[in-house]
Amino acid sequence: MAGKTMQAAQYHPDTNECRVNEVPIPDITDDEILVKIASASLCHSDLMLFNGSLPSGDRPITMGHEGVGYVERCGANVKGYKKGDRLGFLYIKGCCYECKGCLVHNLNCERGTASIQGFGCDGFFAEYAAVDYHNAIILPENLDMKTSAPYFCAAFHGVDSCGLKSGQWMAIVGCGGLGQMAIQFAKAMGLHVIGLDINDTVLQAAKDAGADIVLNSTKPDYVEELKKATSGGADAAVVFSAAQAAYDTAAKILQIGGVLMVIGLPSKPIQFGAIDLMRKLYQIRSESTGPPQQMPRAIEFIAKHNIKPTVSYYKLDQIHEMIEKMQTGKSTGRLAVVF
Fold this sequence. Notes:
By secondary structure, the chain is of the alpha/beta class. Helix content is 23%, strand content 29%. It has helices at 48-51, 100-104, 155-160, 177-188, 200-209, 222-229, 244-252, 274-278, 295-305, 319-327, and strands spanning 5-12, 17-24, 32-42, 61-62, 66-74, 86-89, 92-93, 115-116, 128-132, 136-138, 169-173, 192-197, 213-216, 234-239, 254-262, 282-286, 311-314, 334-338. The strands form 4 sheets. Strands 3, 5, 6, 9, 10, 17 and 18 form a 7-stranded mixed sheet that branches. Strands 13-12-11-14-15-16 form a 6-stranded parallel sheet, sandwiched between helices. Strand 12 (192-197), helix 5 (200-209) and strand 13 form a beta-alpha-beta unit. The longest helix has 12 residues, at 177-188. The chain is globular and about 60 Å long.
């Protein structure tokens, strides 16, 4: 570290905007690792800062909760890591990582002090970040640091936790960058995959990612087409879109008793039909990236099956371009800052 400051893209709650600021390189606690960030990717949930559905505090916060990088320095309690190690990491701090709540999701920690990096405390759109060692995992050598940040979103767990068997049908609703990764996961698990989106360019990217069938859900006959192709409907639908309409679509395309997997986070509560649930027309599940005990299986699978996200590269001072591109639906893959 040549100096004591760094560049960081920070959300300013007073003006509801992002600015690139010069800030101090973070101090670390005994349980933390100072990481030199290699790349950090933008997620749709990052945009929830701007509409207030995932509020930050009252001070500028470094954005970003998907990142990878290199060990720079370790706290006194950190074992098993050394300078230069290639790390990926999750993003919830201030929790114990071992109570009953944490074993379900770290935001449920019994301490009541859990905080999401990029929202409640500083995240990864910066040259350096402080990472709790519980959240860290060493990345296999065959994973490119420029494209690995998106692995630390919920695509793998969303597909895996549906519990489907080889040969069954999975619908991916919302085929942006995360959905395209999910298609690769599903195909590697031996599933048949249908991609649904409202953007034909995105659907072509889904086809390129391996989807067996792609359908535009704005067309009036897409449900009939899907049910004909799947002999009655998908066995699971994983929703990566953050639109209520996407959840409405998912409920229409499932086999009786199929799994509706909630991944995309709309700004308002999702609505489901109580009578549909009473009739058990479908079952609702949800997944996220955590807790960190789940990540070794995901990273092992990614490395074994050579899962490669489609990523467009940016510099930190292009963060506004990235945000605008995602807000307007012009991105067809993942967007990452490479340092």
